[in-house]
Amino acid sequence: MATYIVIIGPPGVGKGTQARILAEKKGLPHISSGDLFRENIQKQTDLGNLAHSYINRGELVPDSVTISIIRERLSYADCKNGALLDGFPRTPGQAEALEDMLHEFHGRVNKVPYISASNATLIERLSGRLTCRAQGHVFHVKFNPPRVAGVCDIDGSELYERDDDKVETVERRIQVYWKLTSPLIEYYRQRDLLVEIRGDQPIEQVTAQLLAALETN
Ligand code: AMP
């Protein structure tokens, strides 16, 4: 059966960074709903234009839109053995839709690592976060600086500050997370899939704990 890993946690906890590392180590495609939206925004598709208005306000894109973009992505051949989902699901409605989809694709969620941190840590991490234009690699001016200022270590593209990482939007994103997304912690705990890892540790330590958690059944 295909292996699907869902990584959850508040914005700024290091989900994206860890998801990329884990996906590579596990040989699974890294599916980030935020990256899919940003690609569409860059290409100015209808979906991108719609998503843009929600993202810039720090709100969630409506479930129906988000579910259909993920359903399409999971139907690609590279996901036939599973995927690592980063940023989806973000509401209980999305989690239920994911269960239905995976049933259809003959898979199920195997594990849900939950990376936790206090609001103070999240705000500190989100201000100063830098994202690469080409592929969304993530750096931080203080906690994970690039070798050359303003340039992605991995693909050499320009680093920029996401509009929704600006201080006005960050607080809203954190509020939205606690209100709409945090119920997923209980949702997956009840299904015995949740593993909590503290995100306020060095990147390598979080990775090591995530890998250890994914080894256990
Ligand atoms: P991220 O890159 O995961 O921080 O996502 C950036 C923004 O994209 C979020 O603040 C939301 O506005 C939107 N977004 C990403 N994933 C979802 C989702 N699963 N449901 C609704 N909106 C989402």
Give me the CATH architecture of the largest domain, please.
3-Layer(aba) Sandwich
Record the strand order, biggest sheet: 2-3-1-4-8
End-to-end Cα distance? 14 Å
Number of E-state strands? 8
Largest sheet: 5 strands, parallel
User: What is the strand content?
Assistant: 15-25%
Figure out the total of helices.
Answer: 9
CATH fold category name of the largest domain: Rossmann fold
* Poorly predicted residue ranges: none
Oligomeric description of these chains: single chain
Percent helix, as a range, is: 40-55%
The radius of gyration over CA amounts to 16 Å
Shape: globular
Our count of domains comes out at: 2
Q: Secondary-structure element order, as H and E? A: EHEHHHEHEHEEEHHEH
Mean pLDDT: 94
CATH superfamily of the largest domain: P-loop containing nucleotide triphosphate hydrolases
What's the CATH class label of the largest domain?
Answer: Alpha Beta
Q: What is the structural class?
A: alpha/beta
**Unique ligands:** adenosine monophosphate
